From TrEMBL:
Residues 18-122 form the 2-isopropylmalate synthase LeuA allosteric (dimerisation) domain. GO terms for biological process: L-leucine biosynthetic process. Transmembrane segments: none annotated. Keywords: Transferase. Pfam families: LeuA_dimer. Coiled coil: none annotated. The keyword Transferase applies. This is 2-isopropylmalate synthase LeuA allosteric (dimerisation) domain-containing protein. SUPFAM superfamilies: 2-isopropylmalate synthase LeuA, allosteric (dimerisation) domain. It comes from Zongyangia hominis. The keyword Transferase applies. GO terms for molecular function: 2-isopropylmalate synthase activity.
């Protein structure tokens, strides 16, 4: 299977993720990304699911970025559905970048927001 992407594709793109988290274990996240069209995977561990995912992404992309903040807003709709908005702010080389993403899954939204910011500075 050819995993090459076209030139117009972003440098970093989510393929898949799996998270294992609980109140008595450290969070573990398996993240698979396309980096310049090549599929890469890393397993991250941390205190919570989002931090484990961000750690795994950082190991894959290998950019020298500083996370200033991330925010996840979850809104309930009248029909019972939820919508999520994630915003991530990073710094690299003295410049600030902001990534955003919307979706129905909070963790996926923060992953895509982080990748949006990394694609701007990478």
């Amino acid at each position: 299977m050819d995993h090459k992407l076209t030139q117009s594709s972003p440098r970093y793109r989510l393929h898949s993720f799996i998270v294992n988290d609980g109140n008595i274990v450290a969070a573990t996240a398996v993240v698979r990304l396309f980096v310049d069209g090549v599929e890469k995977e890393y397993v991250g561990r941390d205190e919570n699911a989002v931090e484990a995912i961000l750690r795994a992404i950082d190991k894959i992309v290998k950019l020298d970025v500083h996370m200033d903040s991330y925010r996840i807003d979850v809104h309930a709709q009248e029909n019972g559905a939820i919508s999520c908005h994630a915003q991530v702010k990073v710094r690299r080389g003295g410049r600030h970048y902001e990534g955003k993403s919307d979706g129905i899954d909070a963790i996926e939204a923060v992953i895509k927001a982080y990748l949006d910011a990394l694609n701007q500075c990478g």
